[in-house]
Amino acid sequence: MCPLSLKTSDSTQILATGKAKMWILLVGVNQYQDEHFPALDYSAIDCQQLGAALNEATREFPRKQVIVHHDFAAFPTFAAVYSSLKQITSAAQPQDTVLFYFSGHGVIEQTTQQAVLCLSDTQNDSLLTTGLKMQELLQLLEGCAARHQLLWLDACHSGSLVLRGARGMDEPTAIGSFEPTVQLVKVLRTRAAQSRGFYALLSCDEGQRSWEFPELGHGVFTYYLIQGLRGDAADAQGVIEADALYRYVYRQTVEYLNQKNYQLRLINEEKKLRKESPLHPEYPLQTPKRIVEGVGELVLGLLSESSDISGADISGAGISGAGISGTGISGTGISTATALVAADRPGNDKAELSETRFAQNFAHNEAHNEASPTRTPISAPVNPPSSPDSQIGVSKAVPQSESTLVALKQLSVFGYAGITLAILGAGFALGGLTGLFNPHLFTSLNPAGENAENAEACDRPLETLPGSKQPMEAQLLLPNCAAGAGWEQVKVQTFIGRLGAAWWVALTSDGNTLASVSGNAVEVRDLQTGETLRVLKGHKDIIHAIAISPDGKTLATGSADKTIKLWDLQTGELLQTLVGHAGVIWSLAFHPNGQILTSGGGDSTIRLWDVQTGQLSRTISGHKDRLFPVVFSPDGSILASGSKDTTIKLWNWQTGKMLRNLPGHTDTVRALVFDAKGERLASGSWDGTVKLWDVQSGEELNTFTGHINNVVSVAFSPDDKTLASGGIDNTVKLWDLENQTLLATLKGHLDWILSVTFSPDGKTLVSGGRDGTVAVWKLQP
User: Fold this and answer.
1) In what order do the strands lie in the sheet with 574-579?
2) For the residues of 549-562, what is the DSSP string, one character each?
3) Which of 368, 394, 485, 497 has the alpha carbon at shortest distance from 52?
4) Which windows of the sequence hold WD repeats (predicted)?
5) SS3 content of the chain, % helix, strand, coil (to 5)
6) What are 130-165's pLDDT values in tens digits?
7) Which of 227-236, 404-413, 505-514, 766-775 has the lowest mean pLDDT?
8) What is the pLDDT of residues 692-745, one digit of tens each?
9) Which helix (H) or strand (E) covers residue 357, if one does?
10) CA 219 to chain centre
11) How far apart, in whole angstroms, are the C-alpha atoms of residue 700 and residue 661?
């Protein structure tokens, strides 16, 4: 459990009034000269952005000095870091506060069993002379006059001091001894007992490993340190106190790992059903550890509306490129006034985990982007950016042909965020999957059709409208400057940035009520205030599908427990439980009359239910694999279904007779939508294409190519002139149905576009992404 805070003295006044000075030394090491030490992906960016967060949090402290050593600033060699340590420990006065942070490898030297922090030039065969020994670091701090001293270690596995290794790695590598760090904890506790102002914070406890995740862009420990310093750990007065920061980091780290393991268990359950192997190992527990005696109310920051830090002494202590100036961290290209985090809170748990391709994609991501193995190989050195503007984490680093979200983002509690919006009264549904949020910058290829090579492309930044819940740096890419058809005037608004652990959401037509699904529960909220109105619980397993009746009164939920439940959306009363499927319910859709509900399941069947009685009316079979989309035509006469068997089937749902089979896709059919007249059907597939079909003849009218890899959502505009598609290439593409060409590409999401839908007037397009963002793209008059 998270330990309680300690009663201590307050240091706010002396820091805020300038009677005391804050000294900060930050060290992050990505690349090591000795190839025995694997390169890391995130230590330098950890250091960069933690420095920016500290600089912002301490802007009310007129006297401070921040020294930064990482791969892209003053290089983190032993000599440079040791010199900075000596400088700070010698100059600090009794009333001052000293903070030392390290992100990188830490090992135990085998002969002496001493803990050593590995710097860029540390050699494995001479750890004691080329690495920073913990005992030596503590001795320097012991000799420092400053009464308040903080030591933050994200030393890969600082609790057990081992190298970052893959999950399931039971044997140590060739570096150091991986015995539990009893020695480390002992010396830290000894130091804490000697000084009531000493406060040590380790990224994990003894015998544990510290994890880093690409969807966070940081080690999980430092990620939450940054978020806490940016305000999440501040009290009502804006004070960020060391022990409150610890409690925040502790809770968030434990919660995040729990949810990562939860989603892995879901994948493993599906793999077991498919008799696939191997199963994915779970991440061992990581609990940040605090070592302190009698002090906890050390003030680290004081937030206010003012951002003027011109009076701060943060020149870098004479170390060229290592300090922070009044305009940012020198050597990083980061302005202190600029939002620097590519991802804030992790996204939500994954829906539709049993989809084979998405499970495969997730497994592929694990192989290349999972927690501990996500580091730059030794053979691919990390080179410093050529200019300040090209530094990692800065919006200016994004080429003009790319677009990213770089500002503070409040995403879901889980590592996944899948979104489905049902706009009532309009007949449009926005369906979504869930998946990992990946904050890495992306490059998207946008084929513009046959004339792309001869067209003049236009790449335009888009304005974010006031009232957005999370800032977005969005772009509109036109295949040629005359192809926009009004979309060149689009502005973007992000109206949902935090859905909790939402898999699917449904929005009422007045935009005031939001039903979000998390695990096996549904939370109904007032969208304007965010207030939770009620929580609907009843399913015994994960909910994979949701639909709202045309009149907005009934909510249907389908679950892995093989049941469907109908709820009164206004009162939260459970109306019916529908039992009949022999597999997971993957899709739900109401008939336009609201009296019939259809469901598609993992048992490869379509089932039709009487909403009033809850009775099963009909079971339709014909697909050879699991069902994904099921959708009624606007007049309600035809039911369309798509499957993992790569086919689309059209049914007379009243008789169960198949009207026609539409072959053509070469992979799972993931999305289906009828046009407003019910004459054409659009499909999106994991084969990367969008196809247009004539409903009466079954003829394939056109195939749109341009997405890179899977297409997961499609939507018609109300006038049937534009087709929108969302894919895992992080883009929304708009297709001109009259000319059969690419009209525009909307960019801004950091990760897969999982869902798209138009508003009834066609002037607004809503997209939901795996990055946890719901973006509203509004055409301006």
Assistant:
1) 543-548, 554-559, 563-568, 574-579
2) -TTS-EEEEEETTS
3) 394
4) 536-577, 578-619, 620-661, 662-703, 704-745, 746-781
5) 15, 30, 50
6) 999 988 999 899 899 998 888 998 875 433 344 433
7) 404-413
8) 999 999 999 999 998 888 898 898 998 999 999 988 887 889 999 999 999 888
9) helix 356-369
10) 13
11) 11
Question: 23: which strand partners?
Answer: 65, 98
Q: Does residue 201 contact residue 246 with C-beta atoms inside 8 Å?
A: yes
Pick from 607, 604, 506: nearest CA to 563: 607
Task: State yes or no: pLDDT of 357 exceeds 60.
Answer: no
Q: Is 46 helix (H, G, I), strand (E, B) or coil?
A: helix
Residue 379 CA to residue 119 CA, distance in Å, equals 18
Closest of 279, 244, 275 to residue 264, by C-alpha: 279
Q: Per the structure, how many domains does the chain have?
A: 2
SS3 assignment, position 619: strand
Q: Kind of pairing, strands 22-28 and 64-69?
A: parallel
Residue 366 domain-assigned (yes or no):
no
Residue 133: name the closest of 150, 157, 108, 158 by CA: 108
**Cα separation of 389 and 213, whole Å?**
25
Taking the C-alpha atoms of residue 129 and residue 122, their distance in angstroms, rounded to an integer, is 8
How many CB atoms are closer than 10 A to CB 748?
A: 27
Residue 332: the pLDDT is 29
Gap between the Cα atoms of 89 and 109, Å rounded: 25
Q: For residues 725 and 632, give the distance between their C-alpha atoms in angstroms, rounded to a whole number.
A: 19
Task: Determine, yes or no, domain membership for 391.
Answer: no
Where is the domain boundary, 275, 303, 329?
Answer: 329
Helix (H) or strand (E) holding 365: helix 356-369
User: CA–CA separation, 751 vs 771, rounded Å?
Assistant: 5
Give dist(CA 556, CA 545) in Å, integer: 8
Is 593 within the bounds of a domain? yes
Query: Which CA distances in Å does 623 have to 4, 131, 271, 627, 648?
Result: 57, 63, 21, 7, 9
If you search the block for the tokens 């010396």, which residue do you land on?
Answer: 187
Residues 160 and 283 in one domain: yes
Distance CA 91, CA 93 (A): 6
Q: What CATH number is attached to the domain comprising 699?
A: 2.130.10.10
Q: Render pLDDT for 444-487 as a digit per residue (tens, 0 to 9).
A: 223 333 333 344 456 666 666 555 544 556 777 777 655 555 66
Task: Give the torsion through C-alpha atoms of 501, 507, 508, 512, to 10 deg.
Answer: 70
Sheet holding 639-643, edge to edge: 627-632, 639-643, 648-652, 657-662
DSSP structural state of residue 158: T
- Helix crossing, 182-194 with 134-142: angle to 10°? 0
Helix (H, G, I), strand (E, B) or coil at 65: strand
Q: Are residues 425 and 288 in the same domain?
A: no
Identity of the amino acid at 170: D
Are 610 and 638 in contact, with CB atoms under 8 Å apart?
no
Q: Are 521 and 536 in contact (CB under 8 A)?
A: yes
| AA letter at 725 | S
Amino acid type, 79: A
Domain residue limits at 29: 12-329
Take residue 509 and report the two structure tokens written for it: 């037509």
Handedness of CA 547, 550, 553, 554 (dihedral sign): negative
Contact 372, 305 (CB under 8 A): no
Task: Write down the pTM of the prediction.
Answer: 0.47
| Phi (first) and psi of residue 75, to 5 degrees | -65, 140
Q: Report how far residue 739's alpha carbon sits from residue 404's, in angstroms, rounded to the nearest whole number.
A: 30
The reply to whether 476 and 580 lie within a common domain is yes
CATH of the domain at 314: 3.40.50.1460
HEC-encoded secondary structure of 436-448? ECCCCCCCCCCCC
**Chain position carrying tokens 């489905």:** 420
User: Which of these, 452, 441, 438, 444, lies nearest to 480 by C-alpha position?
Assistant: 452
In a domain, 414, yes or no: no
Note the helical H segments in 231-355.
242-273
Last residue of a domain, one of 301, 329, 357: 329
Q: Same domain, yes or no, for 433 and 325? A: no
